[in-house]
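Translate sequence into structure tokens.
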Amino acid sequence: MSGPGSNDEGVPLARRYDAVVIGGGHNGLVAAAYLAKAGRSVVVLERRHVLGGAAVTEEVVPGFRFSVFSYVVSLLRPEVIRELELARHGLRILPLDGTITPLDDDALWRVDDHAETIRELRRWSRADAEAYEEYGQLMADLARFVKPVLSMVPPDPGRVDPREWLGALRMARAFRDLPERHQAALVGLMTMSATDFLRQWFETEPLVATMSASGIIGTFQGVQSPGTAYVLLHHYMGEIDGAFRAWGVPKGGTGGISEAIGRAARALGAEIRTEAPVARIEVREGRATGVTLASGEEIRADVVLSSLDANQTFLRLVDRSHLDEGFVRAVERFKYRGSSGKVNLALDDLPELACKPGRGEWLRGAISFSPSVDYMERAYDDAKYGHFSRRPYVDCIIPTLVDPSMAPPGKHVMSCFVQYAPYRLADGAAWDDGARAAFGETVLDTLEERFPRIRDLIVGMQVLSPVDIEEATGLTEGNIFQGELSLEQLFFNRPVPGWARYRTPIEGLWMCGSAVHPGGGIMGAPGRIGALEALRATRGAGR
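Result follows.
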């Protein structure tokens, strides 16, 4: 890096780096760490006062710290943890023990102890108990089969370069060698709805509904919409300590992940700046030459990597004159369709379920408001017509039961992920204070059906609509996956057909966020692969 210096008039000259990374979300930080590890001078520019993007921890209520947006981790790639030595930089992932689905007078409780879960399912259906083991093994096998895709650079279907297709050809040969039932299941995952796929194995309604819920995260679709079965597999590929489909809570909240990656990047030599919003990407003769900050400061670089979504990168930061109109239209067609809200509660005490009173282990995992498929589909019906769900799907966790440091002694925080809260409301209505308050009350009404005393325990509350998420993080339409995880927007179509290999139509400008393959979740794979591809290109250019 060269220092800023000044000219004869005392005006600061532009700083110069080998690379600039736009956005201090976890993927941007991962990219910066890999660039610094390769000996490049790199600066990360984050517009907010805190690192992490959607993976942040903030003290919203005095004394209570929240994972404000993203709240659990499963997909963080083992190679990122290992290669950046994140454990040495403070990363700790505490396991969540299972999922409970509370009902009117009973509850379905699945835990990490396989034998105990089988005993619980046998209470509901002997057939489901027998099928559960078969289903789990099948999905683990398919997750292992698909897992290499998470580290693959997608080929460009418009190019006949055999090198680009080697990974896909290996996958094709591996598919050919799969047992026939595995092949059929994989085709079903790519084409069926989450509900239809699961009903091939299970008949217990709360089990099917709760498992189906994984198929709608990051999408504006219902559990019976074709294509949602694939999202089941996307989440099934998550692992903690080698265990597939394991979920955890980062110590210190999801911001603990971002901070650990940030520490690793700094230790490797990266510079990280907060409160440094980028106003535009500078382009000269078709090549990115750096960025200009909102303050007017100029930063020059050989390469620019954007961890922002495609809409923010190409339609806000790049002058349209530098882009082909066909590419711009393709970016404009990319679907975000934000459909999720978040409610964070500061609690004076631990709540109790009406159907399962007490303070037992069942509160240490996810608490899923998904009693039936019909319940889930009615929640989607409201959203289809521009209304937040009158009885939404809510996924709750109480992270203070595994990480007490998130609240004062004896107090608790509750994180509530909510489907559905459409970004665009019916009849042009706005997500104003009144709409936000009504949404919050609806969520509390839903919680109160299972936690009768919940309102009496609340000492602070944060309600976030998709518009609030967009304004806080910059994520278009509040979609924390930087674009819907629908099949037509994956692999070599993410974010734009022909431009899924982390490159962009502007030479020297790269993408490294969840807008590119393999998509959303606290994963780190887009940041890692984007940085490695940029490094490969600069080495190839004789650097």
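Note: The two ends are 15 Å apart (CA to CA).
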